[in-house]
């Protein structure tokens, strides 16, 4: 009976204390202190909120990370800095306890608190990352964390750690590249960090991750993963840049495409056929990949690749395909540049008179100018092309002489464009 009364008393006291502590107003108070750079009062008030209102709001933790990081950045001594770093790591534990669905990758976050604040604890960082990546790889979005994890794995491999065999490192390479590719696809407006991490990983591991080793690795592991479309897609992505001529690439591309024809699987089939010099089939698969692609910019890239590669010698089809690319991505200035280059090859083929031949160079110049309008970064390349064509193009005096000011001229042949000259 006494125990029951004691429990009721404790609950009453806790309830009364909670009522006395106004969580909402205290949160507002520490936020105002922090905005005013009154860090001491912000920290003290936030600490009270964290203690009394651990489930009041996710902001208790996200704000706390900012407050603690400010104190870390302004710590007077190395000892004080490390203590604050450890406090921030402990806050991630508490965050995961109270908001597990928002902090599944808390171990990775803890590792990066150590790493980013330059605390000498490499093995601890690695162990936290290794545990975090094994438990919550689908929740990790930090590009630097992905790069750091792979670099530490590769470092152990290079140091001769028996656990870190070439196959294990290739497992990690496959994992991190899959993660980074998926993050790029899901964050199309902000991919620079992921691309940088991917380039860093490829540069770091280039001695191990070559076509021969990758092909051998994927051949050995294909049978046990032949029904794992994500694994196959990652393998094909890793091989596609430089190693698509490997027989295992063809095998995996055909397997993925047989499951479902998608833009991605059709693109891999295009590469596979290209490497086998089956050019007609490759063109068909490129077109299918473009047709199935739903992202306009990605669709334009496929058309551009086709126009400047397999169709480059068929000027009519190349132009048609470049125009498709520009239809889906009007800012693709490089398509205008390639089209201008195509026109520069055509005067003898398509010009019936000297005036028409020079008019084609005039058209090439006007097309090159469109490139820098569509993409200002291409202005130097466009200006150089304009300068190269200038000596072969119509001059104003020649336009005047033929009385073509304000008039139009249609160039037939595969160009099939009408040039309208400016009035005087």
Explained architecture:
This protein is mostly helical. The chain has helices at residues 2-20, 23-35, 39-52, 59-73, 78-98, 106-116, 122-136, 143-158, 166-186, 192-204, 211-225, 229-240, 247-259, 263-275, 279-292, 296-308, 315-328, 333-344, 347-350, 354-374, 379-390, 396-401, and strands at 408-411, 417-420.
Helix/strand layout:
Elements: H1 2-20, H2 23-35, H3 39-52, H4 59-73, H5 78-98, H6 106-116, H7 122-136, H8 143-158, H9 166-186, H10 192-204, H11 211-225, H12 229-240, H13 247-259, H14 263-275, H15 279-292, H16 296-308, H17 315-328, H18 333-344, H19 347-350, H20 354-374, H21 379-390, H22 396-401, E1 408-411, E2 417-420
Antiparallel strand pairs: 1-2
Helix pairs in contact: 2-3, 3-4, 4-5, 5-6, 6-7, 7-8, 8-9, 8-10, 9-10, 9-12, 11-12, 11-13, 12-13, 13-14, 14-15, 15-16, 16-17, 17-18, 18-20, 18-21, 20-21
Q: Please, how many helices? A: 22
The end-to-end span amounts to 107 Å
N to C succession of SSEs: HHHHHHHHHHHHHHHHHHHHHHEE
- What topology, given as strand order, has the largest sheet? 1-2
Shape label: extended
Oligomer: single chain
What proportion of the residues form beta strands (DSSP E)? under 5%
- The poorly predicted ranges are 1-18
Tell me the helix content: over 70%
Count every beta strand, where a strand is a DSSP E run of 2 or more residues. Answer: 2
How would you state the average pLDDT, rounded? 93
* Main β-sheet description: 2 strands, antiparallel
Instruction: Decide which structural class fits the backbone.
Output: mainly alpha
Radius of gyration: 31 Å
């Amino acid at each position: 009976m006494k125990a029951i009364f004691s429990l009721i008393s404790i609950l009453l006291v806790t309830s009364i204390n909670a009522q006395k502590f106004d969580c909402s107003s205290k949160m507002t108070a520490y936020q105002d202190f922090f905005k005013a750079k009154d860090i001491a009062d912000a920290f003290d008030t936030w600490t009270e909120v964290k203690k009394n209102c651990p489930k009041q709001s996710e902001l208790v933790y996200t704000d706390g990370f900012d407050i603690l990081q400010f104190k870390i950045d302004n710590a007077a001594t190395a000892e004080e800095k490390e203590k604050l770093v450890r406090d921030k790591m402990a806050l991630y534990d508490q965050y995961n306890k109270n908001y597990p669905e928002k902090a599944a990758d808390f171990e990775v976050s803890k590792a990066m608190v150590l790493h980013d604040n330059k605390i000498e604890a490499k093995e601890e960082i690695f162990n936290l990352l290794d545990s975090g990546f094994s438990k919550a790889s689908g929740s990790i979005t930090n590009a630097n964390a992905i790069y750091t994890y792979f670099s530490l794995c590769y470092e152990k491999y290079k140091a001769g750690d028996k656990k870190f065999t070439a196959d294990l490192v290739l497992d990690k390479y496959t994992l991190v590249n899959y993660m980074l590719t998926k993050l790029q696809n899901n964050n199309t407006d902000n991919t620079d960090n992921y691309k940088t991490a991917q380039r860093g990983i490829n540069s770091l591991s280039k001695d191990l991750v070559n076509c021969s080793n990758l092909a051998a690795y994927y051949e050995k592991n294909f049978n046990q993963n032949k029904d794992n479309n994500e694994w196959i897609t990652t393998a094909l992505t890793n091989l596609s840049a430089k190693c698509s001529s490997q027989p295992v690439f063809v095998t995996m591309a055909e397997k993925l495409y047989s499951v479902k024809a998608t833009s991605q699987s059709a693109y891999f089939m295009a590469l596979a056929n290209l490497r086998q010099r089956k050019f007609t089939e490759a063109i068909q698969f490129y077109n299918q990949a473009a047709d199935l692609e739903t992202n306009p910019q990605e669709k334009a890239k496929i058309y551009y690749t086709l126009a400047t590669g397999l169709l480059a010698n068929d000027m009519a089809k190349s132009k048609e395909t470049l125009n498709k690319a520009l239809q889906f991505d009007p800012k693709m200035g490089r398509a205008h540049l390639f089209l201008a280059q195509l026109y520069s090859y055509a005067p003898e083929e398509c010009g019936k008179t000297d005036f028409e031949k020079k008019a084609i160079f005039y058209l090439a110049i006007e097309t090159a100018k469109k490139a820098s309008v569509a993409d200002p970064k291409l202005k130097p390349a466009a200006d150089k092309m304009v300068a190269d064509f200038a000596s072969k193009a119509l001059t104003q005096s020649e336009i005047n002489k033929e009385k073509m000011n304000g008039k139009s001229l249609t160039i037939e042949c595969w160009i099939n464009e009408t040039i309208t000259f400016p009035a005087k």
